[in-house]
User: Fold this.
Amino acid sequence: MKHILIFITAGLLLTLPCQAQKNVKIKFDSNREVSGKKFAIRDISPGIPANWDGFNFVVLEFRITTPQRFQVGFTTETGYNELRVMSYCPNGWNKLAIPLRFYRALPDAAHDLAATYNQPRYTGWVNLGGKRGPLQGIDSIGIRMNAPINNPVLELRSISLSKDDPGDQYLGKEPMVDEFGQWNLGDWEGKIKSAGQLTKEWNSEDAEVVSTKDYNYAKFGGYLSATVKATGYFRTEKIDGRWWFVDPEGYLFLSVGVDCVSPGGGGNALNIGKRNNLFKELPPPGLSPRPDRPNAVSFGNWNLFRRYGQSYPAKSKELIIKRMDKWGLNTICNWSNPEVMALNRKAFMLQLHGVGIENGIMGLPDVYTPDFAARVDASIREFVTPYRENPWLIGYFSGNEPSWTGQEERLCGMILSGADRPFKTELTKFLAGGDTPEKRKQFVIHTFSIFLQTVNKSLKAHDPNHLNLGIRFGHNPGKEILAVCKGVFDVFSFNCYDLAPKKEFMDQITEGTGLPMIIGEYHVGTVDRGMAQSLWQVNSQKERGVAFSYYTETAYAHPALIGTAWFQWCDQDLTGRNDGENYNCGLVDVTDRPYTYMVESVGATAKKLLQIHQGTIPPTSLQPVKARGHGAIPDLWEK
Assistant:
């Protein structure tokens, strides 16, 4: 059979017959740290030009047996250039068009890290990284994987180029997603095969009677055995060299929490309708639990409707509280369902909105706009007024993973090359005596300090009862940033995707700020459910539980660490959230069933945290097997 190679010439779409293309196959070796191969492009798709300047997309037709991320790179005349790719179609053939701009230049600036680096497509998604450069003199494609799980296989049968976006296409015959929202082309222990099986498991859980007695929790989640002065609201206190939250009744409190706590997860309402050919059956309309979003239906909501019928919105929220009681979780963290928080049954945290981050550059607001302080003040007043006297609220975050940290010089370049605005005027004045990388960094830090002071002033004026939990940094912010946070935040927050948080880093924070700390995000996933393996990967669901305990117990052994938030309550959607992410990171799956190994580890660890933080017992030393992070892939091939 002859294949067709697509070329674009003078803006016209041409199809030219070419020699038969050759399938290539890679079996990734799980015994190697990095496994992969390079192939001459002419051996796969003869006739593709070596200069790609006239093209905007490279189109791959491939089948891979795993959702695990893999690198796709090209050897050019200036070096090797690669990206991470995740497929929504493991075990099925698909066509994925990758924008070549991702290879040519750094990603466009966005206000946080996820928005900067995650790029959604129809049959998969791309995570940006690696070396960028011109696409000239291209002679080979390389495909490799870091720490492959279970010896996965990738077959590549076509490479083509296009000027315009040709779209992606799932080429398989069997639907990728079954009627329960599960991966349809794979199997695993405990996979739901029938509604009857699901109902039996749900009924068993509903019949359980649970409480927080095993964790010795008071009303607000503090420890009944440890009491200090009560103020009616959450606060922090350092006792005998160790930091604590103190709950409204005066009990010492460690915030053991989860992000994105909400019923009906595991199905992205905005994307389901755009991906119909992937699904065996779509959720019926009219199942949204939110009057303001009538189309917010998902497989998660559908399964809750199967479980509880029309009363599922109320009963599913009660089930969340019951599960938190059973697993020893005492805090509802960022981006959670406001109706669950409004039950006032668990402590919760909120993130402020309208403080200028969304309209800034790379997450840094233009604080020099004449009405900036007034707008921030009005926004904060409106946001916090309903919560001012609510004792269940711990405090507020003012931002998440600003993308400018470590990119100060690039940020200033974008300001200077952008439209005239107060930001640009002030930076130009600041650099009048000399434009150096150090001066640019000083300007950014000075601007950031103004932002922090402005937000904190308004926050304390309109809600003096609750804590300023700071900004959830995604990178090590460095000593200069720590210095400007000191005296502004009540708690220093950071997100940390690692095997465990590094003691040296946490020591640097406490030395630089004198503040207690919260870890706002961490997680671990694997690949057996058809989703990508999260920012940290392990080889099995059992190892996920091991990883949770090792990370969490190690964290609370630090005398200044007083809170953690697992990201997130339910798995992400199999076919991707708005930015493409489709991580196996939940405590609960799309069928509204807990991950047994995970939640057993959560509960077992929660029972030990008071003593671990007091320093009377050590954290676990048991580490997960072959855990790997999402950082830069080592410069290895088959080693």
